[in-house]
Amino acid sequence: MTRTDTANGAHGEAARLRSELTELTDALVATNDQLLALYRVAKFSAASLESGVAASRAVNEVQAILGAGSAAFVRCDDEGVMESMAAVGDDIGALLALARSRGPGGQPYIQHDADRNSTTLLAPVRTHGRCYGAIVAASADDMPFTTGDLKLVDALGSHLAVMLELSAMHEDLVHRAVMQRDHDTASALARAALNRALPRLQNIALSATSRPARSAGGDFYAAIQGAGGLFLALGDVSGKGLPAALVMTSAISATYSAFGRSASGDTASVLTDIETQLASYLNETGMFITMAVAHIDGPTGRLRITNAGQSPVVVVQRGVAHPVRTGGPPVGVLDPRRHTMQTWQLGDGDLLFIGSDGCTDQLGPDGAMFGEDRLHGLLEATTIADAPGLIERVLDAVDDFSAGTLQCDDLTAIAARRLDPEPNR
Length: 425
Prior knowledge:
25% strand, 3 domains, Beta-Lactamase, 425 residues, Phosphatase 2c, domain 1, alpha+beta, 5-stranded antiparallel beta sheet, single chain
C-alpha cells in the first residue's frame, strides 16, 4: 500500500468518525432536550390544583417543548361534549375539529402532511377511571413533530390527567368544607335562637330541650309570658340538616312575633298568624312544619291548644295521659286557614307535654320503636316533684331504650306542669 493510499484511508476514516460524532452529538442534544422536556413535565405536575391553571400550563408546555404552531386542551364533559378549555396559537378551530373527529378516548395519534411538511398530533388526557379530554397540537412551518414528540405529549397528558383528578378531589374537599362551615353556622344560629331563657311563672313549672340528630336540626320550641298566661309552641320542620335549620330559625322568629301580637291567648289565631308569615317562604322551599301552639292561664288552669300535625302532644290529667288530636294540616301544606282549637282544664299537678317524633320513633337494638305507649307510661308515672327534671327523665328513658343505637331523628320536647297557686306551694 502506497503512502497516498494510506493517507486517503486515514482521511476517509476521519470523515466517518466525524460523521458518527456528529450523529452522536445530535442524538445527545435531542436526548438532552427530551430530558429537559421531561423535567419540565415533572415540574409542571406540582404547578397548581386549579384545573384551569393546570390546563393552560400544559398547553404552554406543549408549545414550548415542541415549538408547536398551535396547541390546545380539548375538554370532554360528562355528556361527551368536547370544547376547548385552553389554547395557544391561531389554528385552534382545526385542532378542535381534529379532537372531535378522533375522540378523546383513543390511542395517541400523529399525522404528517408531506406537502406542507407539517404534523398534527393528539394525546388523550385520561386516568384509569375517567377521560378528561385530549391535548392536540399542530407543528410550525417546516418543523414537523416526531414520534418522540408524541410520546412526550402523551406523558404530559398523563400528568395533566392526574392533576385534573387531584383538582377535582381538591374542589370536592373545599366544597365539603364550605358545606360543613354552613352547617356549623346554621347550627350556631339555631342554638342561639333556642337559647332564650324560659319564662318563670309562679303557677307553672316549665322545662324544654332540643337535641338534633345532626349538627343542625329542624326542631324548635318557643315559650313566652303573654296574654295573661304562658304561650308555648313546638315545631318540626320537614327534612334535616342545613335546609331545615334555616327554615327553623325563620319559624322561631315568626312564632315569637305572633305571640307578641296576640292579646287573647287564642292559639288558633296565633297559628294562622304564623302560617301567614311563613306561607310564601315554605311554598318556595317546598317544605312544611308540623306544629302545636298552646296557652296556659296559670291561676285558672285553662289550657288552649291548637295542633297542626304535631305528635306526640299529651295532656296528663290526674295521672292519665290523653293524646291531643290534630286540628288541621301542617303549616305550609295548604293556604293559611283557621285551625281547630281545643280547651282543657289543668288541675294541680296536671301536665302538658309536646315533643317531636324523635321522642317516640327512636329505635332500640332489636329494631323496635320507643313508641307513644312507653312515653305515656313514663309521663303518667311522674309526680309534681319531678317537674324540674321531667325532660331529663324522658331523654334518659329514650337513651336507655336505644342502648347506643344511633339517634334516628331530632329530639325536642317542652313540658309545662300546673302547680296549685297556694302561697305555701
